[in-house]
């Protein structure tokens, strides 16, 4: 593992987007920042700006209104980046999935790396999801390098 | 002459490491003050390396020029300080870097970075007179603007210019974007105007800015250390004490408005500076 | 030196004649022969003649290393009568203008001046015996170079500008006002040259009044109601200054019995001077304040921006306002070491701070430039008042660098105005995409006014260093320099604000007579900053040395060594140049890397550029404005008290006369 890989795995900056959640998942997500879980131990920062972010965390269903925004935010994140869908709604649309305005889960708009199930998932699960996403992001980056070489 | 250049070179090479560790301490101390454990000590280095490794994304080429000049001005200022050069020139080279960063923020038609830049102009206006007054104070004491001349004094500057230790700490809080002065952007990832003036800088550009911040921190601490030149150990301790005070201030205060910040520094800060300058004019050695 | 040998033989009188009268002659030709080509040709040739004459003067002074002086042949003409006649003719012209435009203010001031001039003529009889002379020392050489070279560049730039200007106003070639315009511009340049090379105060006064009259004609060139009002204001303020000048001449004639500046400077001056002489100096300061548009007389220069841009460029950079500070610098040894000098420093410093403060609230580009000019002249006057070698060196450097940068900025503004039909800096937002070349030139011009390692800032730092012994002035310089940063930065920010997708704009086409003057001055601004040390040792130091030779007790060499100048500026320059060039070479943004601004994910493209979708699902174009803090720095709020304070400072100068 090179220096860059270490740095990447130790400094995932997070962008959190609520695509249409009931706020349950959001509360769990924000709990990760609190002293009990303190994700800054792992260098995780909730940065709030796609241009600085490495990992996009999405909660809630994707509806006709939020799909465009979600796509735009993803497009403004510089590579390498990863996407984590958090909670049942983000996975599939959850209980809302047949609703008139719902497109479905996050993967109906973006390529999702990690699905964190639960309604709502526990903070530990969310943290593990971010770690897994980092692993997949690294793998993808290595594959790209190999492909280029 | 050669020795001065070597000292400057050494300072330029070592400064980011010292700055990085100090920033790491800042983050740990801040976390502890919030009952958290905080990131590893070397977190700032991880962040910078990662940012450098991100792929480029930009709105225009000028952004890269602006951060490059920003970094260059910080490096050059530090080098000039260690070469014992003119402090007044140093301040304006420092201002050059800040102005270029502001222009970089202005260069994108983005509501957040534009507003951040507007506010950063006010921040610059707020602290610049304090810095220049400090340098004028050293002139009255030494009869010269050069940093080297301070070492010719017998008594530490902190004894004759105590008010400027406080103003320097204020300037440090403003330049590092610490609360309550974090109006144009926030030092940590606290969100004000998203990321304020930094909003549109991404990846490597942001890495350059973060690197420049490390230099800036060492430079600001170096300024304060000069206040006790007779024993640099005490000087460094004084600088670190100011840094600690700034970190605590950051954690116990809320963000104030731009207008308050400007009013506070131009009334309280400048009054302190003017009082001390008046005392120096009255009692200090006369300028040549 | 063999090559330059013939040059040394040229009589200073010949040079003076070329510098002063050739522009007027060319002007008359332009006025008389009204074809397009003759105008272009003659104006260009006049520019070249002036430039070459100025370079010749420079070369002679450089080789001979002494001041050039020569006396007019006393028997050749009744010089006193001629100059007195000239003065009266000018006053008659001003009186005619006063009647024609029904301006009571001008009428009263001109009549007062008439009385003072007549009094001076009647009382100073025996002082006029000595033959008048030309005297060209380094200060004059610097001024001649500024007037002739930059002035010529501006006049040539005026050719395409005025054509465009008249086309815009719908004036055809037959009814064109251009012949008269260029005549006035050229006479103006000649008068400025006369003002700086003649030693006899009565001659200086004559040319001083010529510039007053020329500036009136130029400001009211467009003959709109506003132009008339503003031109009349400029006229009465400058005529009022003329009253001060005439009073000084009367006092000098009656109490020093000479009109020769050099003779005056060699007589006991400073603290040793008698009360009337100090009063005369205070009168000269008053005259200089009106001409250099210092507070409380700054309004005439602000009003002067109604004139076409070449006029503004000429008034602000190389002529007119520079005449006032020149006069003060010329007489600086005379008030060295007096309280008057200190009050002068504070009055200049006050204008420096106050106008920099007012500039923050402006959106009109020409008004910002006007405030910046007044501010910088205040700084130069403050330097003169500080009256130390380093301060004088700073003043000379500011004179040079300011002339270059301000000429450049006004001309660039004129080009932009013709490009976008606005002089509002809000309308210049994103100019970098529309007129990249002009924007680049403008940004270099602006940065050369405020950033290291450009010359203006180096001079400013030297001024701060020289001001430490006068704490009040120092405080003003510090705060003024800080405020200056604000308005320039905000303006540059507007220019550079761009939207992605337009980052590879086409470079606009500029008329060759726009392009060449702009590029010349841009290169000049950078090159002179690079060459700041040769400039200092070869040009500024001799000027200051000659000046200081006159100050009692300070004769001999002057010590210009300062910490500011000891900085390895070349290292700074190299470092910064690298920092700009490297990203341009290796990190240029590729089209596939471009991304728009962050707008919470709601960004879209609209026909009017980037925009966003509102909460009501409406698409809305993004519009961004700069913040000008009108509530805090408005002219309405602060203009009055500032004028009052400035007027009090003027009164304090008179008080300082009594204090010595």
- Helix/strand/pairing category of chain A: alpha/beta
Distance between the termini of chain C: 48 Å
Strand content of chain C: under 5%
Strands ordered across the widest β-sheet of chain C: 3-4-5
Per CATH, the architecture of chain A is 3-Layer(aba) Sandwich
The overall number of domains of chain A is 1
- Count of alpha/pi helices of chain C: 27
Report the mean per-residue pLDDT of chain A as an integer: 90
Order of SSEs of chain A, N→C? HEHEEEHEHEEH
User: Given the helix and strand composition of chain C, which structural class is it?
Assistant: mainly alpha
CATH top-level class of chain A:
Alpha Beta
Termini separation of chain A comes to 18 Å
**Major sheet strand order of chain A:** 2-1-3-5-7
Structure description:
The complex is a heterotrimer of chains A (about 150), B (about 290) and C (about 650). With about 150 residues, chain A is an alpha/beta fold. Chain A has a single domain, classed as Rossmann fold (3-Layer(aba) Sandwich), CATH 3.40.50. Helices cover about 40% and strands about 20% of the residues of chain A. Chain A has helices at about 5-10, 25-30, 65-75, 90, 125-149; strands at about 15-20, 45, 55-60, 60-65, 80-85, 100-105, 115. In chain A, helix 2 links the parallel strand 1 and strand 2 (about 45). The longest helix of chain A is centred in the C-terminal third of the chain and has 26 residues, at about 125-150. Chain B has about 290 residues and is an all-alpha fold. Chain B has one domain (about 1-285). In chain B, about 70% of the residues lie in helices and about 0% in strands. Chain B has helices at about 1-35, 45-55, 60-80, 85-105, 110-140, 145-150, 155-160, 160-175, 205-225, 230-250, 260-285. In chain B, helix 1 (about 1-35) crosses helix 9, helix 2 (about 45-55) packs antiparallel against helix 9 and helix 8 (about 160-175) crosses helix 10. Chain B is globular and about 55 Å long. The relative contact order of chain B is 0.15. The mean pLDDT of chain B is about 90. With about 650 residues, chain C is mostly helical. Chain C has a domain at about 1-70 and about 135-200. Chain C has helices at about 5-10, 10-30, 35-65, 80-100, 105-125, 140-170, 180-195, 200-220, 225-255, 260-265, 275-290, 300-305, 310-320, 320-330, 340-360, 365-385, 390-420, 430-435, 435-450, 455-465, 470-495, 510-530, 530-550, 565, 570-585, 630-635, 635-660; strands spanning about 70, 135, 605, 610-615, 620. In chain C, the strands form 2 sheets. Chain C has a 3-stranded antiparallel beta sheet, with no helix packed on it. The model of chain C has no long low-confidence stretch (mean pLDDT about 85). Chains in contact: A-B, A-C, B-C. At the B-C interface, helix 3, helix 4, helix 5 and helix 11 of B face helix 20, helix 21, helix 24 and helix 25 of C.
